[in-house]
Amino acid sequence: MSDVADRPLLLLVFPTFAVGGAQSRFCTIANHFGTAWRHAIIALDGDTACRERLRPGLIVDYLTSRTSKGDTLGNIPRYARLLRDLRPDVLVTHNWGSIEWAMANNLVGLRHVHIEDGFGPEERARQLPRRVWTRRLALRRATVVLPSRTLQDIALRIWRLDARRVRYVPNGVDLARFAAPVDAAPHEGPPVVGTVAALRPEKNIGRLLRAFAAARTGSGARLVIVGDGPERPGLEALARSLGVQDSVRFAGHLPAPDEAYRGFDVFAMSSDTEQMPLSLLEAMAAGLPVAATGVGDIAALLAEPNRRFVTPLEDEALSGALGELLADAALRRELGRANRARAEAEFDQPRMFCAYEELFIGNAAPGRG
After folding, report:
1. What is the pLDDT of residue 185?
2. How confident is the model at residue 365, as a pLDDT?
3. Are residues 188 and 299 in the same domain?
4. Mutual angle of helices 205-215 and 232-242, in 10-degree steps
5. Does 369 fall in a domain?
6. Residues 13 and 138 in one domain
7. What does the DSSP assignment read for 235-266?
8. Among candidate residues 14, 21, 24, 26, the one with its CA nearest the CA of residue 94
9. pLDDT, tens digit, for every residue of 74-107?
């Protein structure tokens, strides 16, 4: 292996490096390739909590850059100066929150990969015209990576990006890590509904609480919510007001949630906006049936028999799906096996690793460290 300074440098700009899907995916990729690459990470909000998922020994620097919210005309030249000083081999930007870095790179001309994983609540129902035009201009020279067919269609049809620069790269999951042990005993006691999500408004965990409260009648089911965030106090209060506080456990943030999935009988998603959520793939790899709201690519990701449990964004519809799954253990096992087979066929990690190696390094890809 060459000297450290000769290894390709990736500058990764995240709106936040808190624990989340895009951040966790990067950590998985970085861990796989080890010291073959150098990484410089900028978290625009200063939160670098996801560093806990990077294995020791990687070549990673955490940089700071002065950012003034709303000062696009001031930020762009500052970012351009940093890009010229650092001269990374690849600039990797993530989502709308890093769009000013994409704009700055149009002044510098570095190799640029932009990854768009989805939208916040403000773009759940429609694309905002100002953002459409900004993306169309700022990303015209970038390679734009999208993990969902829904996003790919938006990039081509609405943003009108050059199809030669748009890449669909589905997320991958560690199938071995999430597989149930061969000798695992069936769960005893009432069934457990589980979810893994940041407790933010767009995840709409309140919908899940209301749906669970209606669906659990007579089943004795329990609900486990893995994740943390600003919504937690309000959600705990909602559980009390629904009278299900003794049946709901807020497990908080777990650095390695794979064990949590093994304690679930049903996986639930109640989001208002998603595209290709990693937690859904993890649940499929864990062999779980799924009840979920029908946003983004969720229905297309699941095995065909499970798709009838993808519902409109309504408490009653989600409650109905949960109730049917809670009432039928044989159906849960059948759907879980189908989802596991679907994950094995379509969402293995090696395929994702190969795609990102080509995107970041191309034909000059080094060996793994």
Report:
1. 59
2. 37
3. yes
4. 20
5. no
6. yes
7. HHHHHHHHT-GGGEEEEE--S-THHHHHT-SE
8. 14
9. 999 999 999 999 999 999 999 999 999 999 999 9
* 3-state SS, residue 77: helix
Say yes or no: 220 and 154 in one domain. no
Tell me if 55 is assigned to some domain. Answer: yes
Closest CA to 20 of 257, 337, 360, 310: 257
Q: Which residues of 360-369 are buried (b: 16+ CB within 10 A; e: fewer)?
A: bbeeeebeee
pTM: 0.81
CATH number of residue 203's parent domain = 3.40.50.2000
Number of domains forming the structure of the chain: 2
Distance CA 255, CA 51 (A): 10
Shared domain check, 197 and 147: no
Given a contact cutoff of 8 angstroms between Cβ atoms, the answer to whether 321 and 315 are in contact is no
Say whether both 139 and 206 belong to one domain. Answer: no
Nearest CA to 208 among 180, 171, 178, 247? 247
140 CB contacts (<8 Å, ≥6 apart)? 161, 162, 165
Maximum Cα interatomic distance, the chain, rounded to a whole number of Å: 64
* Same domain (yes/no): 112, 199: no
Residue 117 inside a domain? The answer is: yes
Q: Is residue 225 part of a domain?
A: yes
* Host domain of residue 191: 175-346
Query: Which tokens is 323 given?
Result: 């109730």
Q: Are residues 25 and 73 in the same domain?
A: yes
* Structure token digits, residue 77: 């030249």
Q: What is the pLDDT of residues 230-269, one digit of tens each?
A: 999 999 999 999 999 999 999 998 888 888 999 999 999 9
Return left, alpha or beta for 139; rule: phi > 0 is left, psi -120 to 50 is alpha, else beta: alpha
Summary mean pLDDT of the chain: 91
339 and 359 housed in the same domain: no
Please, is 272 exposed, middle or buried when counting C-beta atoms within 10 Å of its C-beta (0-12, 13-18, 19+)?
middle
For residues 55 and 31, the answer to whether their CB atoms sit within 8 Å is yes
| 315-326 vs 205-215: helix crossing angle, rounded to 10 | 50
- What values do phi and psi take at 226, rounded to 5? -100, 120
Distance CA(228)–CA(250), nearest Å, equals 8
